[in-house]
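Attaching the record inline, Q. Sequence:
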Amino acid sequence: MSLVAALVGGGRAIIANRQLTRVVGTWGMWITGEWAFLVVLSVTAFDRGGTAAVAVVGVIRLIPGALAGPLVSFTVDRVSRVRVLVGVLLSWTVLVALAPAALSIGSLAGLYVIVGVASITSTLLRPAVSALIPQVVDRPEELAAANSTYSLLEAGGSLIGPLLAGALVSGAGTTARYLVVAAVFAIAALLAGGIRTDFKPSEHVRRAGWRRVVEPLLGFGSLLGPRRLRVVVAVIMAQAATRGALNVLVIVAAVRLLHSGLSSTGVLFAAVGAGGLIGAVLTMTLSGQRPALPFVVGMSMWGLPLILIAAHPTSLFAWFGLALIGIGNSVGDVSGLTLMHRLIPDHLLGRSFGAFWALAAAASAVGSLVAPALVNAFGIRSAILVVGATMLTAALLSWFSVRHIDIDLAVDDHHIEVLRHCALLAPLTRIAVEQLARHARTVEIAAGSTVIREGQTGETFYVVDAGQLDASVAGALLRTLSDGDCFGEIAALNHTPRTATVTARAPSRLLALDGQDFVHAVTARGPAEQAARQMISDRTTHGAAHPT
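Structure, as predicted:
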């Protein structure tokens, strides 16, 4: 696919989907506001308290959110994700607008409190956006285009936000600076408020005792459970640590290695953003490609340029090397996020991304702490070399596992078609059906064999792939099931014993779904749950209780 065709196709996919446009637009506004706030905040801290105050603000921005993220992000799976998004943006609007009042007391304590509260609330925004994206798209190709746009707007926001802040610092007073940034978040909240989706929090299993306590931490299990996804997450954490180290190494390198002074750090950091824009555009060509190779290549581009910079420490070489890192960042991030979206069930996406961003923040903090130690021990040039070589090694070694991830993503197209012919599953997006098909089991039934028996317990849901089966209650035939029919929904949805007996009239082939997978998928989408409840009502009302 040519770059132009990919851009046109990706752009059309985003524009044609108004809800997706609002989601990624909200994300772009958030990133712009967040970067503007960071710069304005850092300037205020430096003016009022010097370097120490900037360091304190940096810690408060990072630590509370990293600690709270895994504990609070499960709410993204329990309430409307749109409401979570709007709530976070409105809270930031208020908090940022209150900053001038907090500064009027002559101490930074009030500002520290605002930053700490904002850090905690912001932990819900990234998981909410990440979890909303698959809810407003249908096909994997559209998902890849959405993640490319996500990356493009993140890179754009990282450029526009600092430029906006720079203009405010140069031409506006302290109060005006914060009010303008607050207005950015208010506009984002208005944009988010217009998002409409028929998804809702899915029915969840009620847990008791210690299980209820650890439920918010299930996101870690989703990230660290599947072996190949675990490798993907580990490499992204190495990238986050490299990012944290890079924030320190760029500043030190500008002074000690490139001899260009602190004034050049802005230009060097801008190189990463510029590369990110280019990389995000390039990722538009990946919508129909397998994600494993782009992921490893993108992550390798975090390490190789650092090695080259250490070998040729010139300002021009450093700028282009950092731009290459920006390109790799977009390519690796889009591929990694797409993998997570396709492998993690929707009802766990919120807490999974909460755990993910918390781990990334912690890894970035570790990188920031390790970098000065490396510089002191080996010098700036060797420190850059060590960080780059470590990242490159981690990325390349991951290939031996990640290259097989296409097996995890592979789905039998026939199974997808069979599931989509089921009336209860037809309203689901193709991505949701793919996840069900990936876990579906093929069951061969001999003629005369009983699949489920009236009164027995069991919550497995079945879709008929081929053959004929008889459903009966107390020995009386209710109906004959054939290709595309389904049964088992009453026991799965109502947690009751089977209401009928199903016996194969002829040799048959079924697709079997775990009851919890079925319930989470169906109850997360309004039309699908309505179809299921209506089917149950119709069959029980007319005395023809459907087998379940």
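The chain has a mean pLDDT of 82. The chain is about 70% helix and 5% strand.

More tomorrow.
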